[in-house]
Amino acid sequence: MVPNKTGTQAVLKEPHIQYVFDLLKANALRGRRVMVMVLIRAESETAAETASRLQSLVRSTDVLFETDRPDERGVLLPMSGTDEARGFLNRLFREAGEMKAAVLEIIHPDTELSTSLMRMQSAIDSEEEQVTVLDPFGQRPDEEVKVSVLDPDPLFRDVLGKALSHLDTPGARLVVKTFGDGRSFLESGWTASAHPHLIVMNDLLPRQNGLDVLHALRSLPNDGKFTILMMTRRNSEEDMTYAYESGADGYLIKPFNLRLFEAQVKRLLTRLWS
Amino acid sequence: MIGVPVTAIFIGVLLLFLVLAVLTVYLFAARALQDRKSKRAEAYLSRNGEIWYRVLRGFEPAPQELVPNDEAELAAVEEIFRAYLTNVTGNGIRERVRAFADVHLAPFYRKKLKSRNWSERMNALYRIEDFGMESLLGDVRKLDRKKLSEEERFQLYLIELQFRPDGFMDRTAGRLGYLSEYESRQLFFLMPENVFEEAAAQFGELDPVLKFGLIEVLGMQQDLMRLPFLEGLLDSPDPEIRIRALRAIDAFGIRTPDQILERAFDSPVWEERFLVARMLRRVPADEAARYASRLRNDPSWLVREEIRAVLVRQRSPEEKSAVLR
Fold it and tell me: Which CATH code, of 3.40.50.2300, 3.50.50.60, 3.40.50.300, 1.20.1090.10, is assigned to A143-273?
């Protein structure tokens, strides 16, 4: 069915909305983002009026759709969360007065459109609140994050490996490997992956130096997946500037505080789901 | 021609073979012993690496099984402590190492301090300092009465400084004259603030090597609060002190005060004039040119070259090439 165009924004119907929903959901979740679905029921105005009003508020990337009820309109806000949905509804209510609405965050790939719509409709029917925010379906799936520790000292490598393995990182499952030199790391095939990859690397390494490894990683096609923390004993501004310019994301001056290191890593991993 | 009986040659060769055989057996035995020691150390590390991690992070107290039973296991514990102390800080790791070493490792090192082998004693002294084993301070002080090498004695002072910093200079200043300049600098670097102050207050009575070490450390620290102290040293009758003080002031990397420049320009010592010429790099161009004119015909070639370099640096590109010609 051809989307029903009113104004500038298409209002999608079944089965197109099913296809678009799946596409946007996959896209958002692959980028470790969330998507939010808003269902609005306007009993005091016609569906066309509501659609027209929504068209003036949504972004070009948002999607309007119809449901099986003539007084309902839905909006998919990709790369947005509950806060953005609330902001959107506030703007709508300022213009059109209060309506009943339900908000659902899509965080799991198994979330289905029809089931979600039914949950939202029954929430609108049963809840007295103007806006109902539903619990999302399922838990956010854990992201596998590769972690590589490169240091010539086997005992210290082991210490960092243990610290990272014991780290509590909600939403991320760390797979830690340690390497004693740069070349064995680059030749291991461990870097050829689409998973996020945290690399904690000493600047001085046997066989292939840390800065050489840094250059090699940044020239790989998947360099956007790497977060690289350099470790050094030389507290030299020049070395640090050079490393940052070459693509390092952080610097640790040895000896460093292990808890501070863990906090830094946790913070970096939290950003994966920003 | 000297006649050597064939029997004597035969016995000589036989003896030589015997010595070689004994040496070979000794080397193989030593190697086997070393291998056995390494294996025991590796076994200790793989058995206890995880437990040590939890203990040193403060997640659990040290169980009895971590206490080393022999030299091989002691070497493994030393390696673990070294890996932690040189790479990570904070959260009581150093204190936990200290507490464990003081109770469980001290008997090993006490024995090593009495060894006739210099390297064993030296290693024990290094470990006492690294792991902060204060319980061995008494044994270390007893060692002070014996005939020791200069390296051992220096290590004793570092240990004394670590555990009993108060009054360190009063107790030891008179005995530190044999130190090398490197050792002297190391000593001042490790000094807590109050001991350093104490040393600076006694500057006049210190041995020359300590004076030089203190001045150089002041230059490296670049603490502007100490600049007046260094300026005061420029009045010293000893040219070496004045030269080193000027070098330390230069290391601050700031524009040198005019009175320091003025005084050093007229010095009969070429090194002072050379240093002050170098300081002109951080003086505004017009003032530098005025000062430089006073040293342009200096008897020292190095001073003249430095002045020329200052003038070249401050001229425009066209003028630069003219000077270089």
Answer: 3.40.50.2300
Nearest-angstrom CA–CA distance, A174 and A151: 19
Using the predicted structure, report yes or no on whether residue B18 has a pLDDT greater than 90. Answer: yes
Q: Where in chain B is the domain with CATH 1.25.10?
A: 179-254
Task: Give CATH for domain A4-134.
Answer: 3.30.70.270
Residues of chain A contacting B96 with CB distance shorter than 8 Å: none
pLDDT per residue over B38-65, tens digit each?
Answer: 999 999 999 998 999 999 998 989 898 8
pLDDT band at A274 (very low <50, low <70, confident <90, very high): low
Kindly list the domain boundaries of chain A, sorted by start residue.
4-134, 143-273
ipTM of the complex: 0.72
Report which secondary-structure segment, H or E, holds A199: strand A197-202
Q: Which of B138, B84, B77, B85 is nearest to B108 (CA)?
A: B77
Task: Closest CB to B86: pick one of A163, A255, A261.
Answer: A255
Mean pLDDT across chain B: 86
> For B267-281, what is each residue's pLDDT tens digit?
888 888 888 888 888
Question: Which tens digit of pLDDT belongs to each residue from B210-224?
Answer: 899 999 999 888 888
Q: Which class is domain B179-254?
A: mainly alpha
Q: Inspect the interface and report whether the beta carbons of B83 and A156 lie closer than 8 Å.
A: yes
Q: B88–A260: do the CB atoms touch at under 8 Å?
A: no
Q: Long-range CB contacts (< 8 A, 24+ apart) of A27-31?
A: A27/A78, A28/A78, A28/A79, A28/A106, A29/A106, A29/A107, A29/A108, A29/A109, A29/A141, A31/A79
Taking CB atoms and an 8 Å limit, are B88 and A153 in contact across chains?
no
Model pLDDT for residues A1-24, shown as the tens digit of each residue: 344 444 456 778 778 888 889 998
Pick from A159, A176, A257 the residue to mutate for testing the B interface (most B CBs within 10 Å): A159
Judged by a CB distance cut-off of 8 A, whether residue B51 touches chain A is no
DSSP structure string for A5-61: EETTEEEE-TTHHHHHHHHHHHHHHHTT--EEEEEEE-TTS-HHHHHHHHHTTS-TT
Tell if the CB–CB gap between B88 and A258 is shorter than 8 Å.
yes
DSSP-assigned beta bridge partners for residue A35: A106
> Taking CB atoms and an 8 Å cutoff, what residues of chain B touch A158?
49, 53
